[in-house]
TrEMBL record:
Cell compartment(s), UniProt: Membrane
An example Gene Ontology molecular-function term: G protein-coupled receptor activity
GO cellular component: membrane
Keywords: G-protein coupled receptor, Membrane, Receptor, Transducer, Transmembrane, Transmembrane helix
Organism: Canis lupus dingo (dingo)
Protein's name according to its UniProt entry: Olfactory receptor family 5 subfamily D member 13
Role noted for this protein: Putative odorant or sperm cell receptor.
InterPro entries: GPCR_Rhodpsn (IPR000276), GPCR_Rhodpsn_7TM (IPR017452), Olfact_rcpt (IPR000725)
Amino acid sequence: MLPEGNQSIIPTFILLGFSEYPTLQVPLFLVFLSIYMVTTVGNLGMIIIIKINPKFHTVMYFFLSHLSFVDFCYSTVVTPKLLENLIVEDRTISFSDCIMQFCFACLFGVTETFMLAAMAYDCFVAVCNPLLYTTTMSQKLCTLLVAGSYSWGIVCSMTLTYFLLALSYCESSIINNFICDHSVIVSVSCSDPYISQMLCFIIAVFNEVSSLMIILMSYILIFITVMKMPSASGHRKTFSTCASHLTAITIFHGTILFLYCVPNPKTSWLTIKVASVFYTVVIPMLNPLIYSLRNKAVKDTFRRLVVAKLNNSHSQS
């Protein structure tokens, strides 16, 4: 609810997006539409493949199916509005829609952060304690790790959203971005956003540091274990097992650190927008590609699905 003085005013925001580049609107629309289609097919396809193939009913693929679901939802929260703003003149977004977009983007962003940390722990147990893997990574623990990731995402999202709603806003404000991010929402508030900003900073630092600590400790111990292996083939096999996950977390956390942890007053709005596009639009597309392109079993299952679908289409015609 808006503060008492502003109850009669329903704020609207104008998302500038990439409007300063009018000649690029159509090319950008086609690029982002293609990315969104690949994201949707890739992530939903990964979930279906994991569901129908008993070979993938393992802990790693249990986490991966949830990661694909989170990526699909995250992209769906952001990309449709971005596409709409590239082809329409009216770039306004209502206050409620803006807050909802932030709320869900925050939820899925935080969930993905800790889902990747859980996957790092799974990789650590698989490499460092292979004999105890089945006992350690029980169905109960895996469910708790996934449920915990979603729950903490909801807590962070609800908390930050509540404090955003406690601020007052002018009737119309311009947001120089394509997404309703926390920083741009507080920048257009008419009241003092200090508490909301500090809370966001504390939550963001805690999430990033805690998840990175889990990931770094897991991979340091994995590296030490691999170095103790006598055979070079053992080294290659182990690194190959963790390579997809390591690639995914490097891209994900590398982008976050660039966006939020390397403040530079000279950084242009275009650079911020491009980094935001990579974080919110491109990464959800990359994850299924990273995990599928390195996995022969996934590619074979996908190929069989496509062939079966084509055969069904031919038989019906």
